[in-house]
Amino acid sequence: MKHAAEIASWEQTKLLADPRRLRILRLLMAQPATLSQLAARLGKSPAWVQHHIRQLMQAGLVVPGETRTVGRTREKYYRAAAGALVLQRLVLPESDRPAVVFAGSHDLALERLADTLAPHLDVILHPVGSLDGLVNLRQGLCHVTGAHLLDESGAYNLPYVRRLFPQHNVRVVTLAHRVQGLMLPAGNPKGVRTLADLARADIRFLNRNPGSGTRLWLDARLQELGIPPAAVRGYDTAVETHTAAAHAVVAGQADAALGLEAAARQFGLDFIPLFAERFDLIFPRQETDALTPLLDALQTADFRRMTAGLRGYDPAHAGEEIAV
User: Fold this and answer.
1) pLDDT tens column, 259-312
2) Neighbours of 253 (CB within 10 A)
3) Which of 35, 59, 60, 263 is the most exposed place for a label (fewest CB within 10 A)?
4) Cα→Cα distances 164→5, 14, 30, 168, 169, Å
5) Does residue 118 contact residue 93 with C-beta atoms inside 8 Å?
6) DSSP structural state of residue 18
7) In the prediction, which pLDDT does 1 show?
8) E-assigned strands of the chain?
9) Distance of CA 13 to CAs 63, 95, 288, 314, Å?
10) What pLDDT is recorded for position 124?
11) Predicted local confidence at residue 14, as pLDDT
12) How far is it between the farthest Cα atoms of the chain?
């Protein structure tokens, strides 16, 4: 049985950036081979192959295999150390200023906070949605994530965090509460009133990316209403941020989108509120020191004033930790 392994060092990554060594490794993943067999397959000399094999062995990517006797000749085989390799590396800027990567749900208050922290901490934002953000955090592909996942129990985020981090080795800190709803063109020309109107044939809807908290909320409500996704025109067309959704409605690319009230007001859109939610930051306990400037900022009056200026945001509980 073959097993996959993660690439564990930059040395391994650099070696595999060479397509010749990568080809040798992939051939050895398929089956063990001798220098002569590899040379014949690649159209090179055995000495050429041996040079690259030595480097792959020094990096732990190739290991010696069995030695077979064929007639009077002993043939030494080589094999890949793993049946497949997974490349998961977080690449950060080289700078005197510390940097952290946020991968999670898009949030307008967090964007503003990142700008204010820029002189002291480089917060690099990567909006991938709430669910994918938690997965990225578990895989070590970010330092902190943000989520607004409503569980069927009625609880936000904690049920998902507990399932993905059963050892409870993460912290959950609230950023803000915020309001989401239907973003509509100014004047609401199509007369949209409720979520059920998304099933109308004359309404072009713009969705959010799969795995986002907004999309998961929508899917649950459509199911409650008995509306199949196929009945919503534009259900399969999605964007990754509230800002992109609002911009598309302004541009006439959609008649309705689901998103933050703050994004709708920013673009002069009509807005029908549908639900309030809690947006939490989730991060490993060992990243607490690196994230201290961000966590401290949540407790300040400046952050609360800035966030209160976003329509639909309530920063009253900003910075409060929730026991996992």
Assistant:
1) 999 999 999 999 999 999 999 999 999 999 999 999 999 999 999 999 999 999
2) 15
3) 60
4) 21, 32, 33, 9, 10
5) no
6) S
7) 65
8) 4-6, 62-70, 73-80, 84-86, 99-104, 122-127, 145-147, 170-184, 205-208, 238-239, 256-260, 270-284, 313-314, 321-322
9) 17, 22, 29, 45
10) 95
11) 83
12) 89
CATH class, domain 99-322, is: alpha beta
Nearest to 14 by CA among 55, 53, 62, 51: 55
Tokens of 306: 């800035």
Q: CA 242 to CA 240: how far, in whole Å?
A: 7
Return the number of other C-beta atoms located less than 10 Å from residue 50's C-beta.
Answer: 13
Q: Find where tokens 């030695």 sit.
A: 67
Fold match between domain 4-86 and domain 99-322: no
Closest among 101, 59, 94, 98 to 80, alpha carbons compared = 59
* Cα–Cα distance measured from residue 165 to residue 260, given in angstroms and rounded to the nearest whole number: 28
Q: List the domain boundaries for the chain.
A: 4-86, 99-322
Contact predicate 161/295, CB 8 Å: no
pTM: 0.81
φ/ψ (deg, to 5) at 293: -60, -40
- Token pair of 277, please? 């939610």
Q: Which residue type is seen at 26?
A: R
Take residue 234 and report the two structure tokens written for it.
């534009």
Q: Please, what is the Cα angle at 320 between 115 and 294, to 5 degrees?
A: 25
Cβ count within 10 A of residue 172: 21
4-86: CATH topology is Arc Repressor Mutant, subunit A (1.10.10)
Q: Which residues of 264-291 are buried (b: 16+ CB within 10 A; e: fewer)?
A: bbbbebbbbebeebbbbbbbbeebeebb
Measured CA to CA, the distance from residue 141 to residue 133 in angstroms comes to: 9
d(CA 208, CA 256) in angstroms, rounded, equals 12
